[in-house]
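Weekly sync, protein design subgroup
Attendees: M.S., D.O., the rotation student, P.L. (late)

Item 1: inverse folding check
M.S. brought a backbone from last month's batch and wanted to see whether the design step gives back something sensible before we order anything. D.O. pointed out we never logged the input encoding, so this time it goes straight into the notes. Structure tokens as presented (1894 positions):
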């Protein structure tokens, strides 16, 4: 029973005290005077009566009523019902005194003071019960008695009110006496009667209709928002102008939070005086009158709900976690169905008659029912996550949050996590945790209705029905007897209200009378028997366990059954010791372990293999188990929400391996790396669950039979399973009161000691998992990654963790300042904190706690000692078998610089190898990296066991390394970060390697240093091409004696004379080192000033060549002639060097020897083509106008139009002024410069004169004459082509970026020298250049016309940037075409981007980083387009008969590209093997493209970086090749081969920057005979020749050129393709450009294959992987395949095999004759026509004229024959003579035929073609008859005798014995075998006759 009212208080306005213009209230009377013991009088009642402040008002206000809530220090709530009315005052002094303040305080200001003012008076009723309506009635009654002057005395009414007692809560079954209980009729003795209905169950909140009201005011979304905010502990502030509404809203918010209770600050009405409470840091729910709205504005973190306006304002800094979906959606739907049932049927055509929402009272309950339903879903199964740690003396219960979240797959959910962490939920657990207590509606819902809720959640109508049922119960709870609602209360009469102004003030009550009432009632209560209402305690039902509930949404893994199967199998294999099987399954298992089900499965399976808490494994089993455990733990979060770590905890102390005598290593020492072990919550949860199990066992044992069975039956009836701990506890709690004191004590002690023993156990466990294996190292930092090398791991995982310890323990995870103290202390501290916490919670006695604290350091110390032994032994373990390191095959002469280091090759951004495109991943692979003198090679095997048999090779030449950076890599297998390197090469290769843990970091550093040394040698002689074959130490200066002195002498002479000219500074240096660029430019400046030395030189060179060079050097001059590409000049008819050096005067050009000492221009070749009329002295002067002295020289002549192509560098700045200077320019130029410019003009003129078209026109030099003559002489095709050139020019010159007014119009420009007239200007250019207008009538015709009319004889392609001012020749004999060239920097940057696009370092999903996007951004294609475009323009100009001079940059980059491409496009010869070689030698090597500098080949050029000018040229050739596949004799592979080897430094061809440097090193004219090691080729061309003889890999079968075809490729970017050289890779063998390696690899493979193969039948299918296999090898093209088959068949039949080329030519000729016979135009059967790639512009028709094809093939053969027979430079003279006639002439072949020759010891007999040569007196042999190169020579002078022989082992079968004969020489005996005895006799006779002749 409880008092209805504790206190009755009258509060009035305090007239004496006014503080700062504000009135105050004071308590006038309070009853009872002294406090009740059970509820002290609350402070501050007077504040709450007038929350907005006490004020006097001029008009009387109607009485008001509201309930405020005060919370006392014990957090009990007191409800203060305030009834306020206004009483008049008429005190004139008061008025005067207070007038001003009253005005201020009031908004109703009036000038005239009223006679009366009114003061508030409040009647306050303080109660612990919340009966708003009853309080309203009671206080109203008191007021009515006072106002209407009813007969009852006020004292009686108040006395009765204070003595009224009502029951707290009614029973649930309304029996008769129960009804008495819950219905209490009260009367206050003023003729009134009220029935108070107490709720049936006091734990359910009473809400009236406030919840429904709240939803009406704010709406569903807003209220849900507030609901979530309150649960997640945010600050909430309600605003309203009505106090009662504030109270109702707060009450409603609390009501919907049930079953959680709000435990923070709760003030539904906050007085204005206390507004500073709002800035409290704790959460709150507070209501404030809207009057104070402005004060609430600056609150930053408070959610403000305005009840009157219906808004909820959430500040920016506040984030409210909302309910998890789909709950949120379903709750909103349910609420809208309650509040707005019409919404659903709003669209129906025939809406139901009435869909009114229920009455407010009912609606209120329906809403609450929805929230109860929501909580039942949120908390379902919560009882299964309760751990009961103590039952006696009272239950101690903990909630296992991680498990609860994990089972519902909501561990990531913000909302639920916050709710479970909140205070409200802690209260919920302590209140509802105990298993034996009274239950309520929520317990029933969450336990018994879970199934129903689950089935109905998706169907809103069923949810609705359920909610209505719950709502009924709620309503019934509040109104148990709705019928008996009778209130008989008098209200004040109308009249009394109207004349209230004149009523008397509320009287003072007689406190004695009131007190009498109270005392009387108290005495009565004492005598009455206590009304004991029995508490209905029962066992709380737990409901279904959570597991069943979750599988529905937790079932993410669709094929989980298969995965579990894999896990189970793997574990079985491990324990059955089938390691190979286990290894194969391992990757799949590690993938599967990402799923929860598999992890649970793993723990269960492992459990079955534990016997008596122990399972001893061998090393490999141990390793696998540990790897699986690590993987399992790695994917768990630190919360361990699925209990995986908990399940593994007993296992890590069970699995172990024996390390030595008495030393056992347990699995825990290898799984310490994980966060979970440092998480205090995890340990607590684990501890509590274990304690619970133990306590459960304790009571299961002690129970005596009877009770036990009783309980068993009870449980069995509900569900057959073992008794849960909570049920046991409930049973024990029920029995507790019946036990004797001793029994109770005994149980308490038993429980306490159980907890204590568990605490000791856990202290041990924690020390196991927290102490690292190597405790000497104080490394608590996880970041240290791998353990040191010396903690020699015998596996990836086992010990590497040893060294490192869970991440630096911050205070959260338990360790403070871990670094400063040692490991042991930090672990002890962590365990101490744990023990303190759990022991205090579970009530361990203090003595025990002290004992524990004393034990912990000993436990830790003991464990450290055992660990030391384990650590010591584990170091001795033999390292686990890692894959054997495969050794790479090396080239002859290539040597290892560093032995292989074990590394992992990590996949980069290329997707093929990683398995993303399908197929098993080839990368990552494990193997070793080798550094040789030539290459960097990785060789290893993929880590994926499915492709474990394959080998993976990736390599690139050291010289091609462009970037190296350190990276840190985490490998997937283990979680440790390793240091690695990323190496990028310009052969489009990228190696990302991670060093294995066995590689010491200093070793990795040594590797980097060596790599750098090799990449950037001091001098070019340090490169592989020079050091090849020499042992380790790199020899810089060769001291070998040179066989060919004369060569050296020539080199020395050349260098000497050059040095003499250049100046003394250079001579002092002993060893040559290429001068830096700064020096070089200074040479040039010296040359410019040093007049004398140059003129001396000139005199000397005016002598004839033969007299200049001493006779000893004459012979070697022929080498210069060879090298300087004279062959090509002769072929082009540009001049000859006959023996007497007499020149035919009528030739327009001559070969000048001015530069033979490299004095004119260091970077030009020795012999140059210049116009006949220009003496060498002029050349010396001209060259200074050009950069690097590279003056214009002729490099090619069009055989048809006789137009010539010239190349030079750009002009020096002063040269431009001098050359193009207008004579009337104001600047005074020294005459010397002037004369130079005249000479320069003369030089250009000489070139123009040399052209036949000019000499024809020379008579008529007028413009019109020129034009017409030209039009007549040029053939009709030219006429058609003219406009095209114009368009081309426009394209080439008019780059888009140009501002108008620059040269983008492509017109003519410049002024006419020697006359004031202006030529035909392009107006806008002209104005800028001459500064004058040009009112010429022919100002600017359209460009096409323009070019056609005024074609110049010579076009100068110049750089826009340099041609700042210029002039035009008076007769338009030359014209400058300004173009924009890409400078070297652009190419360099573009190439870097291209490499990153083709070989990205990491894969990215960013669409802006896709391959095509990156390719576009690199602008590589745009650069190719520009170069090709200019080249095509030049080709067109040359073809129309104009000469072109390309004069760009320094004349060695872009110029070279353009000039070479022009020749390639214009002249078919350059599209053959010999021609292309000649082109590269002439234009790139002789004319000084700076290969060493651009390729950054030495230390000196390292800073300049890699610039692939030559690669760009090859790419252009590749683009042309793609468009004209039938015009090239060489294949695409040939271009790739060059592209690879020009950066590889394997050959000397592409080293050094010019012929001068090559001569100086003696590289240029190396004798072929001089090679010591025939394996080592010094020139890439020789190598290609050799290879080409053996295999058709460089040959293009579609080669069938047309006569004098000029190629004009399309150059737009859309026509260009990405070269596959950039993107392809062969992982099986590495790059295919070093052919010796291929042979060696195949041989090695054959040897291994010879072993007997027992593997059973082999499949004929062969899978070809895109990035692994070499496609040309695995799937060769048809022709190559046929040629190969032919060769192998011939070898089998023992015939001498033909060269592939001969076979091919034969086939072509037969093909030709056949087609002639058929004389059909169809070529369908033809082999040649295997090409369907004919270029778009070429008509099929041309092709099909058989004669055309025939002749073209003839032509090819002829040209090849002539090419091969030309002497190769540097051969000794006799051999040169013979080599010309070797195979074709037969005079010197006395006898020839096939003989079988026996090889050296153990070698087979081989058929060879033998030639007996009387002239040379030798017997030579060849591989086959057609072979041009002799395989061996037997000098007849050494032969002693020829005798008949006998068959030896391995001789050819079925041959007559007499066919064998032996040839004995002084050195050895040769065994021969002829085809038959006759043949043998013939041979013997012939040889004998030769001998006798001698």
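Designed sequence read out in the meeting:
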């Amino acid at each position: 029973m409880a008092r209805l009212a504790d206190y009755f208080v009258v509060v009035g306005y305090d007239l004496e005290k006014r503080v700062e213009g504000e009135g105050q209230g004071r308590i006038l009377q309070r009853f009872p005077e002294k406090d009740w013991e059970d509820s002290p009088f609350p402070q501050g009642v007077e504040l709450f009566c007038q929350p907005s402040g006490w004020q006097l008002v001029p008009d009387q206000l109607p009485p008001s009523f509201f309930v405020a809530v005060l919370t006392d220090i014990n957090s009990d709530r007191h409800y203060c019902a305030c009834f306020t009315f206004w009483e008049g005052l008429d005190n004139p002094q008061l008025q005067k005194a207070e007038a001003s303040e009253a005005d201020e305080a009031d908004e109703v200001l009036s000038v005239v003071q009223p006679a009366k003012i009114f003061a508030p008076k409040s009647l306050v009723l303080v109660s612990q019960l919340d009966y708003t309506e009853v309080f309203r009635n009671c206080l109203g009654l008191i007021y009515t008695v006072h106002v209407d002057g009813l007969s009852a005395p006020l004292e009686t009414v108040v006395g009765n009110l204070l003595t009224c007692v009502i029951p707290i809560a009614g029973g649930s079954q309304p029996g008769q006496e129960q009804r008495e209980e819950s219905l209490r009729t009260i009367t206050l003795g003023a003729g009134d009667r009220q029935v108070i209905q107490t709720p049936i169950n006091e734990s359910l909140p009473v809400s009236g209709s406030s919840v429904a009201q709240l939803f009406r005011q704010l709406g569903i979304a807003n209220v849900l928002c507030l609901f979530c905010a309150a649960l997640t502990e945010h600050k909430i502030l309600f605003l309203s102008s009505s106090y009662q509404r504030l109270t109702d809203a707060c009450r409603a918010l609390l009501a919907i939070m049930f079953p959680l209770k709000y435990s923070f600050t709760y003030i539904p009405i906050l007085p204005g005086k206390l507004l500073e409470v709002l800035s409290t840091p704790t959460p709150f729910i507070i209501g404030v009158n809207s009057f104070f709205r402005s004060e609430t504005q600056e609150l930053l973190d408070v959610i403000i709900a305005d009840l009157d306006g219906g808004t909820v304002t959430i500040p920016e800094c506040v984030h409210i976690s909302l309910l998890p979906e789909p709950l949120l959606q379903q709750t909103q739907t349910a609420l809208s169905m309650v509040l707005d049932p019409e919404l659903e049927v709003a669209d129906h055509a025939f809406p139901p008659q009435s869909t009114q929402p229920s009455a407010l009272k009912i609606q209120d309950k329906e809403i609450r029912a929805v929230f109860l339903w929501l909580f039942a879903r949120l908390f379902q199964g919560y009882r299964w996550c309760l751990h009961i740690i103590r039952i006696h003396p009272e239950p101690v219960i903990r909630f296992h949050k991680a498990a609860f979240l994990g089972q519902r797959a909501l561990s990531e959910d913000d909302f639920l996590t916050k709710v479970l962490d909140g205070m409200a939920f802690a209260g919920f657990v302590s209140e509802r945790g105990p298993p034996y207590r009274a239950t309520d509606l929520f317990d029933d819902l969450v336990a018994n209705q879970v199934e129903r809720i689950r089935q109905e959640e998706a169907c809103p109508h069923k949810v609705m029905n359920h909610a209505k049922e719950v709502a009924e119960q709620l309503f019934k709870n509040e109104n148990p007897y709705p019928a008996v609602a009778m209130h008989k209360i008098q209200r004040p009469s109308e009249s009394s209200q109207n004349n209230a102004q004149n009523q008397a003030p509320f009287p003072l009550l007689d406190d004695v009378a009131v007190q009498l009432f109270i005392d009387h009632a108290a005495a009565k209560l004492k005598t009455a028997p206590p009304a004991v209402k029995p508490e209905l305690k029962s066992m709380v039902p737990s409901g279904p366990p959570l597991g069943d509930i979750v599988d529905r949404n937790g079932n993410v893994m669709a094929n989980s059954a298969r995965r579990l199967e894999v896990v189970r199998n793997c574990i079985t294999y491990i324990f059955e010791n089938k390691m190979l099987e286990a290894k194969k399954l391992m990757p799949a298992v590690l993938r599967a372990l990402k799923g929860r089900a598999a992890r649970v499965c793993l723990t269960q399976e492992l459990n079955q293999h534990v016997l008596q808490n122990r399972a001893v494994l061998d090393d490999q089993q141990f390793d696998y188990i540990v790897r699986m455990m690590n993987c399992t733990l790695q994917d768990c979060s630190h919360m361990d929400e699925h209990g995986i770590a908990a399940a593994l905890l007993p296992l890590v102390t069970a699995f172990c391996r024996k390390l030595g005598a008495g030393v056992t290593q347990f699995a825990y020492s290898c799984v310490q790396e994980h966060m979970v072990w440092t998480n205090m919550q995890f340990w607590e949860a684990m501890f509590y669950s274990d304690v619970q199990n133990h306590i459960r066992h304790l009571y299961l044992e002690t129970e005596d039979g009877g009770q036990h069975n009783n309980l068993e039956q009870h449980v069995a009836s509900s569900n057959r399973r073992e008794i849960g701990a909570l049920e046991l506890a409930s049973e024990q709690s029920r029995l507790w009161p019946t036990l004797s004191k001793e029994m109770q004590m005994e149980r308490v002690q038993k429980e306490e000691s159980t907890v204590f023993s568990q605490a000791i156990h856990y202290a041990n466990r924690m020390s196991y998992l927290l102490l690292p294996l190597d405790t000497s190292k104080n490394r608590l930092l996880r970041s240290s990654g791998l353990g040191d090398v010396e903690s020699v791991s015998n596996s990836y995982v086992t010990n590497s963790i040893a060294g490192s310890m869970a991440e630096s323990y911050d205070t959260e995870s338990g360790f403070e300042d871990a670094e400063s103290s040692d490991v042991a202390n930090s672990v002890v501290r962590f365990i101490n904190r744990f023990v303190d916490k759990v022991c205090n919670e579970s009530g361990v006695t203090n003595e025990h706690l002290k004992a524990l604290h004393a034990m912990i350091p000993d436990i830790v110390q003991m464990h450290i000692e055992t660990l030391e032994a384990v650590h010591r032994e584990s170091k001795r373990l033999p390292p686990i078998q890692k894959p054997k390191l495969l050794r790479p095959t090396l080239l002859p002469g290539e040597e290892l610089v560093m032995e292989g280091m074990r590394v992992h090759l990590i996949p980069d951004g290329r997707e093929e190898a990683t398995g993303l495109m399908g197929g098993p991943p080839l990368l990552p692979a494990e193997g070793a990296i080798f550094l040789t003198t030539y290459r960097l090679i990785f060789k290893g095997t993929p880590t994926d066991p499915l492709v474990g048999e394959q080998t993976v090779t990736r390599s690139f030449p050291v010289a091609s390394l462009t970037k190296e950076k350190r990276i840190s890599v985490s490998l997937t297998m283990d979680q440790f970060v390793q240091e690695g390197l990323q190496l990028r090469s310009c052969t489009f290769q990228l190696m990302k390697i991670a060093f294995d843990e066995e590689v010491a970091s200093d070793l990795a550093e040594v590797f980097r240093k060596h790599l750098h040394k090799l990449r950037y040698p001091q001098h070019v002689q340090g490169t592989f091409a020079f050091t090849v074959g020499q042992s380790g130490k790199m020899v810089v200066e060769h001291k070998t004696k040179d066989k060919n002195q004369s060569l050296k002498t020539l080199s020395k002479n050349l260098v000497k004379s050059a040095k003499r000219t250049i100046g003394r500074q250079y001579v002092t240096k002993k060893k040559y080192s290429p001068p830096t660029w700064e020096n070089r430019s200074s040479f040039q400046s010296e040359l410019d000033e040093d007049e004398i030395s140059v003129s001396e030189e000139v005199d000397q060179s005016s002598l004839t060549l033969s007299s200049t060079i001493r006779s000893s050097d004459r012979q070697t001059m022929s080498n210069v002639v060879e090298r300087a590409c004279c062959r090509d000049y002769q072929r082009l008819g540009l001049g000859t060097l006959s023996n007497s050096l007499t020149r035919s005067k009528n030739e327009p050009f001559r070969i000048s020897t001015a530069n033979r000492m490299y004095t004119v221009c260091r970077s030009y070749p020795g012999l140059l083509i210049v116009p006949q009329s220009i003496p060498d002295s002029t050349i010396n002067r001209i060259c200074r106008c050009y950069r690097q002295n590279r003056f214009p020289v002729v490099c090619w002549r069009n055989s048809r139009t006789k137009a010539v192509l010239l190349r030079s560098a750009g002009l020096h700045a002063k040269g431009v002024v001098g050359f193009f200077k207008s004579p009337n320019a104001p600047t005074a130029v020294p005459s010397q410069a002037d004369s130079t410019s005249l000479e320069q003009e003369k030089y250009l003129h000489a070139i123009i004169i040399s052209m036949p078209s000019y000499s024809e026109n020379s008579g008529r030099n007028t413009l019109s004459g020129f034009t017409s003559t030209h039009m007549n002489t040029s053939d009709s095709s030219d006429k058609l082509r003219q406009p095209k050139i114009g368009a081309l020019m426009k394209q080439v010159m008019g780059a888009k970026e140009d501002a108008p007014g620059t040269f983008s119009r492509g017109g003519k420009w410049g002024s006419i020298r020697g006359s004031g007239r202006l030529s035909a200007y392009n107006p806008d250019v002209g104005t800028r250049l001459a500064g004058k207008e040009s009112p010429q009538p022919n100002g600017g015709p359209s460009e096409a016309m323009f070019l056609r009319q005024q074609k110049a004889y010579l076009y100068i392609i110049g750089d826009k940037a340099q041609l700042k001012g210029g002039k035009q020749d008076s007769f338009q004999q030359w014209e400058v075409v300004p173009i924009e060239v890409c400078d070297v920097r652009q190419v360099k940057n573009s190439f870097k981007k291209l490499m990153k696009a083709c070989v990205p370092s990491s894969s990215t999903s960013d669409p802006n980083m896709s391959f095509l996007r990156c390719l576009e951004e690199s602008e590589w294609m745009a650069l190719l387009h520009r170069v090709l475009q200019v080249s095509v323009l030049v080709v067109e100009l040359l073809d129309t008969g104009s000469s072109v001079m390309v004069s760009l940059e320094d004349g060695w980059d872009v110029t070279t590209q353009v000039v070479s491409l022009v020749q390639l496009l214009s002249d078919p010869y350059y599209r053959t093997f010999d021609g292309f070689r000649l082109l590269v030698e002439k234009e790139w090597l002789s004319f000084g493209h700076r290969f060493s500098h651009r390729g950054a080949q030495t230390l000196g050029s390292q800073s300049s970086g890699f610039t692939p000018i030559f690669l760009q040229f090859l790419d252009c050739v590749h683009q042309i090749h793609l468009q004209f596949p039938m015009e090239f004799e060489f294949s695409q592979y040939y271009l790739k081969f060059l592209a690879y080897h020009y950066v590889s430094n394997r050959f000397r061809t592409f080293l050094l920057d010019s012929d001068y440097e090559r001569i100086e090193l003696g590289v240029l004219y190396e004798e072929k005979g001089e090679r010591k090691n025939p394996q080592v080729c010094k020139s890439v061309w020789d190598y290609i020749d050799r290879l080409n003889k053996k295999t058709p890999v460089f040959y293009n079968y579609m080669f069938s050129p047309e006569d004098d075809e000029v190629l004009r490729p399309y150059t737009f970017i859309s026509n260009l393709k990405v070269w596959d050289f950039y993107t392809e890779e062969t992982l099986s063998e590495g790059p295919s450009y070093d052919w010796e390696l291929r042979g060696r690899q195949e041989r090695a493979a054959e040897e291994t294959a010879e072993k007997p193969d027992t593997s059973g039948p082999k499949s004929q299918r062969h899978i070809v992987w895109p990035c692994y296999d070499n496609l040309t090898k695995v799937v060769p093209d048809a022709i190559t395949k046929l040629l190969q088959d032919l060769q192998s068949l011939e070898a089998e039949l023992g015939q001498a095999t033909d060269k592939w080329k001969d076979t091919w030519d034969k086939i072509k000729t037969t093909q030709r004759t056949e087609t002639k016979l058929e004389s059909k135009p169809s070529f369908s059967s033809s082999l040649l026509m295997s090409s369907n790639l004919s270029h778009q512009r070429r008509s099929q028709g041309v092709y099909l004229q058989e004669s055309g094809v025939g002749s073209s093939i003839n032509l090819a053969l002829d040209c090849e024959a002539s090419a091969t027979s030309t002497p190769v430079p540097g051969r000794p003279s006799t051999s040169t003579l013979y080599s010309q006639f070797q195979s074709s002439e037969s005079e010197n072949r006395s006898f020839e035929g096939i003989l079988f020759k026996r090889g050296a010891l153990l070698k087979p007999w081989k058929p060879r073609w033998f030639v007996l040569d009387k002239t040379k007196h030798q017997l030579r042999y060849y591989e086959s008859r057609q072979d041009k190169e002799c395989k061996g020579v037997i000098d007849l002078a050494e032969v002693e005798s020829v005798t008949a022989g006998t068959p030896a082992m391995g001789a050819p079968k079925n041959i007559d014995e007499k066919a064998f004969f032996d040839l004995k020489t002084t050195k050895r005996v040769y065994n021969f075998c002829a085809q038959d005895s006759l043949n043998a006799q013939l041979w013997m006779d012939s040889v004998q006759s030769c001998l006798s002749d001698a």
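Discussion: Residues 1310 and 1368 are 5 Å apart (CA to CA). The first helix runs from residue 45 to 49.
Action: P.L. to compare against the previous round before Friday.
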